[in-house]
Design goal:
5% strand, two-stranded antiparallel ribbon, 203 residues, single chain, mainly alpha
Length: 203
């Protein structure tokens, strides 16, 4: 397991685990957003000094990008799995239920880290927003490609507007994240999932 040696005040070396430090930073960014997370918040949570943060991860923006990579790799793993489902309805169901499970977990902050951080307004805002937009667009493209295949295979009606359907599903997922962050109960979010599935046009 990779570690970094941090020099303590009295000159004694202290090791910290990079993965654990990054996971701690992820929780801070996820809870407070990019702008809301101060360097003090981050170093306190990570248990390291600012020089050690810069040495191990670069600046705050670089740390955020690494935390976002971790978020997508671990917390959004269900998205890639959902796209492998055999029918369009099962894709939608796995996406919705995966989001529901993550948003209602007692172990994680509520809301979507991408949504929370997309309102960044500091000096790095343009770069952060552009990165978040590209990540969302990449996910949306993958979903649209899967739904177009479903349409080509006759799973979805020939009249289906694939981009519109994917935009609708994306809006539901984003809405769930906003509602979860605003205190919606699991039962309320489950009702949203069930209603959305009842309205799904595919098999």
């Amino acid at each position: 397991m990779e570690c970094i040696v941090q020099r303590a005040c009295k000159g004694r070396p202290r090791e910290f685990d990079l993965d654990e430090a990054l996971a701690a930073a992820l929780r801070v960014f996820w809870t407070k957003g990019y702008d809301g997370a101060s360097l003090t918040d981050l170093t306190d949570a990570m248990g390291i000094t600012r020089p050690s943060l810069y040495a191990a991860f670069g600046n705050k923006e670089a740390l955020f990008r690494k935390a976002l990579d971790l978020y997508e790799r671990e917390k959004l793993a269900y998205v890639g799995e959902a796209l492998k489902a055999p029918t369009s309805r099962e894709v939608a169901e796995r996406l919705l239920r995966g989001a529901l499970q993550m948003q209602t977990s007692d172990c994680e902050p509520r809301g979507c880290m991408r949504v929370i951080s997309s309102v960044a307004c500091g000096p790095e805002a343009d770069s952060i927003r552009a990165d978040l937009m590209e990540r969302r667009q990449s996910s949306q493209r993958a979903l649209c490609e899967r739904m177009q295949r479903a349409k080509d295979e006759g799973d979805l009606p020939a009249s289906t507007d694939v981009e519109g359907l994917c935009a609708y599903l994306g809006a539901i997922l984003q809405g769930m994240s906003v509602q979860a962050g605003s205190g919606a109960t699991k039962a309320q979010l489950e009702a949203l999932v069930e209603t959305s599935l009842l309205m799904w046009p595919g098999k």
